[in-house]
Amino acid sequence: MAILATSDLHQHVIGYNYYSLTEDPSVGLDRTATLIHQARQAFPNHVLLDNGDTIQGTLLGDLQTMARPVPCGQTLAIHRVMNALSYDAGTVGNHEFNVGLPFLSQVLGRRFPLPGMPKDAARCGGPAFPVVSTNVKLAGKGRTLLPSHAMLDKVFDATTPDGSPLSVRLKLGIMGFAPPQILDWDRKHLAGRVEVEDAVESARRWVPILRRQGAHVVIALAHGGLDASPYRPGMENPGFHLAGVPGIDAMVTGHAHLVFPAAREPGAPQPDPSLLALPPDQVSLAQGRVRGVPTVMPQSAGRRLGVIALTLKWDGQRWQVQPGDTLVETWGLRHPAGTQPVAPDAAVRSLVAREHQEAIGHARQPLGPQALFPLQSAFAMLGDVSAIQVVNMAQIEAVTHWQQHDAQAAAYRTLPVLSCSAPLKAGRNGPQDYTAVGLGASAGQGQALQIRHVGDLYPFANNNLQAVAVDGKGLRAWLETSAKLFAQIDPDRESPQDLVPSFSTIFNFDVCQDLDHRLRYEIDVRQPAGQRITRLDWDGHPLEAAQRFLVATNDYRASGGGQFPGLDGRTTVWRSSEPNQAILAAYLQTQPRLSLARHAAQRPWRLVPFRTAGPLLLRSQPGQWDAAQAAGWSEVVAEESAPDTAGYGRYRIVWPGRPGP
């Protein structure tokens, strides 16, 4: 029997980029559907499962869950497609909770036993398959918010030892685990209403229950990645330790948007460095085993389909998974030849054609201002703030208004205000996943901004603005944590080195700045992580540890997202009710024109320049060398003739005055 799995679909119903209004054949459940059809032909005995983070993401998702939430009688576009594809079961990730429990209750078609939930939720449109959550429980009640598990009753074709055909009824026990950090990230929705049990402890309790209920096969849907550091309760990425729970036969992981096992099609991308660092004696990146358990992580946005093909043998008492006869793969959208992407499923596109057109119409609504320069994130990791500074300016303005006018801000009136924001679209979801607003715009030829551009600059509609109080020591720790995204570069190494080896947590590269360019800092990537901020100045002098600041950020970061030292909710002094995205939109509407000099020229940080014996490469959006030159990034001396196996352009970095190889 085969377990077919998706994860982190993030409302990528079809392969379309609503920010650029162009087709995108590298993503989309419409193309994953074609892979699902192929897999069903290859594996007639199968189940189709989803691992969460399904309903949030893309402008279509924001429209249906935030801007114009669907009514009870309407089913989310992503669920309509999943119903049509006959998914068997799914779980919730962390982003499901972004929409709040009442609306989540509605769109899942299940009334939660909590005050304030829609009474008719059970009659609302939703998934036609069970959505389970084993470790999210009602606060103080012990019961789970959603069904703790599903028991799928399937009839499969088998053969007897002599080769005779046989129909076999199997019970498949499905568990689902969300990250405990949802209590921090969505505190505004969840505080006092739910609690989250550690995934490993929850599985230890529930696996024996599923076995007693007759489960022949137990499958864990773990919305978390693979972290092999010593076990500690409440891990965000518990997959490695979850695999050590006796009785789990197969596991689907996610959340990290990575590919596990390593992709096998011709020209497949190289594994993420974080996966290569896992202990090889316990994790097989080639065979898809974690502590012996067949495990898959099918990337994100419909870019891959996970396939775990189990061979089961009856030993006289129970069905046993045969490890040597189990195949684990992820099928990419260029499966199997690795050349052209598979064709989209026309039935999927037809099913959501109306919603698709509504999203395009919403995306094209005029916002007001003219952009007189391109706002891009392709070279954000070199110091380009053209797609970041305007976000920081909007956040500083909002926090400053609270600081100067709210009675509760009296203790913070005189503190300098900073803002820290990351390049939120900078390669995490593929080589075209970069902010690109106002391409071709210039001082003489502006481009009118539209609603879609707000999401291109700040794609997380669920984040709310918050302000935290930090001192100079805390700010340094904040910047050091951001700088961990870089590799440690050996200047004497002659082979090529990637400046940024992984984009999986690019949203943690915060750029901090103020309005008057008083904050400046340098990052030396030759140094080990934690020792890279070699210069940190305030007002032209080294920053004092006791200097206090008010820093604008989002609720994810302020509550502990990214594990930044000192940011755990206790330093938060203001929690705005307004989303960061709405604050950015309101700010943009007050700016008739966005000019390079006012909105993008600050560049508060830089990399310390040095000479390298071998090539130093920045992987980024391909075809952007001319844009780098036009923006004055003279250290980008060339783009390699061919992209890497994942499709990223490779740019050679040589600092002026420090000749490279």
How much of the polypeptide forms β-strand, as a percent range?
25-35%
Mean pLDDT: 95
Count the strands? Answer: 38
CATH topology of the largest domain: Purple Acid Phosphatase, chain A, domain 2
- CATH evolutionary superfamily of the largest domain: Metallo-dependent phosphatases
User: What quaternary form is this?
Assistant: single chain
Entry keywords:
661 residues, alpha/beta, Purple Acid Phosphatase, chain A, domain 2, 5'-nucleotidase,  domain 2, 2 domains, 8-stranded mixed β-sheet, 6-stranded mixed β-sheet, 18 helices, globular
Topology of this protein?
Elements: E1 2-6, E2 16-17, E3 22-23, H1 29-42, E4 46-50, H2 58-67, H3 77-84, E5 89-91, H4 101-107, E6 131-132, E7 136-138, E8 149-159, E9 165-177, H5 182-185, H6 187-190, E10 194-196, H7 199-212, E11 217-222, H8 239-242, E12 250-253, E13 259-260, H9 273-276, E14 283-284, E15 289-290, E16 293-298, E17 304-309, E18 312-314, E19 319-321, E20 327-332, H10 346-351, H11 353-363, E21 366-371, E22 375-376, H12 389-405, E23 417-421, E24 436-437, E25 447-450, H13 451-457, E26 464-471, H14 472-483, E27 497-498, E28 511-513, E29 519-523, E30 533-538, E31 541-542, E32 548-554, H15 555-558, E33 572-579, H16 580-588, E34 593-594, H17 596-599, E35 605-607, E36 616-620, H18 625-630, E37 636-639, E38 649-653
Parallel strand pairs: 1-4, 4-5, 5-6, 9-11, 11-12, 12-16, 21-34, 23-32, 27-36, 29-35
Antiparallel strand pairs: 1-17, 2-3, 7-10, 8-9, 13-16, 14-15, 15-16, 17-20, 18-19, 21-25, 22-24, 23-28, 26-32, 26-33, 29-30, 30-31, 36-38, 37-38
